[in-house]
Amino acid sequence: MSDVNLTLDHQALDGAAATRRYFNKFERIIGHLEQVAEMSATEGEIDRSEAEIVVGYLRSLAGTFTALSNKYLMAGRVSNHLPGSLTIDKHESGFPIFQEVLQMANDALQVESHLKNLPTQTKLKQEMVSHILNEHTIPTGLQYAMSQRLYYEYLASGPMFWARTDPQALWIGDKDGRRRYLLHWAAYDSQLNLPTIYVMMVEDTGKRALPRDERRWPRAQDHLMAQSVASLKLVTIAQGFDEDFDDLHPKFLRRFHVGPMYSHSFTQQSGPLREVLAEAGGGPGEDWALAWTVETLVSGSVRTEKSGFFGSVERQVFTLDHFGVQENETGATQTRRALILPAKPHQVLEERKPAGLSKIRKYVVGPRGKMISYR
Hints:
This protein is an alpha+beta fold. It folds into two domains: 6-157, no CATH class; 164-374, no CATH class. 39% of the residues lie in helices and 28% in strands. The chain is built from ten helices and eleven strands. Strands 3, 4, 5, 6, 7, 8, 9, 10 and 11 form a nine-stranded mixed β-sheet that branches. β9, α10 and β10 (361-365) form a beta-alpha-beta unit.
């Protein structure tokens, strides 16, 4: 095991102004990602059910950023130590570090007690007005209390992208007497500090419907969550599931990597994007690019192997994409990489034409938020 200190890539945002710029940037970016998912469905790269699943997780991710923006709204304005600052992975992520998401989950467990002890929004607003009229100063302490009130209220009601979201099953019909489900789940990868979304289509030949089977369903959920590591190849995840469940047959597995986010203001990216974003400049909200990667693994055929004395089971034979004779396979049938970025960085990118980015699909955000796709 390497002794590399991953915290060297971490950075606490400097003050409330930088924190607000960071969250405003991500609010826009996640909105653009919903358009990318919709365009992918329209163009047939994923089906409509998958697009709806992905958009649901993206909205949960937006909820996480909204909650954190309230938590750190007064960063550095109350005292040198209160409240703290949001910590992000500044190198190859651009997202909040995994520990921020874990802390949010812990706070969610204590929402009821925090809301009980904090004054209501109405009471805090009345006290702010009274403070301004009587003290003639900014009610910083009350503003901080309001930000924490908003944070806990959002944790109590808003959709959230947690460190892990256990698998759910969506029935999509029967085929040849087999029940078919889309299983979907998500994880915030602790090593990469990036959200990942998984969708698996399975055919169920069990006696009971999978979501109602108290023996198979909890075990299947635990199995998939234990394998939800971005560094694992899709074929490793799918083959392990196929071998552990004789009556669940994974026909395809898809993984969506959201990020990294590159920003000249907030991250220390390497490679050609560094020069592109530096040259593009631009106003607030224009100095960014977000990677969007979709890995797909498809079962191309099946084989039968013996089970016990007289039985047999079906195993999947997955189609793998090989880079070349001398290189290892990717562990997927297909990998689609894309960049989402504003128009000005895209213009610089087209002028420079860096070799490593020439074949990557670009989703370009126009002045009014309209998305244009370039292959």
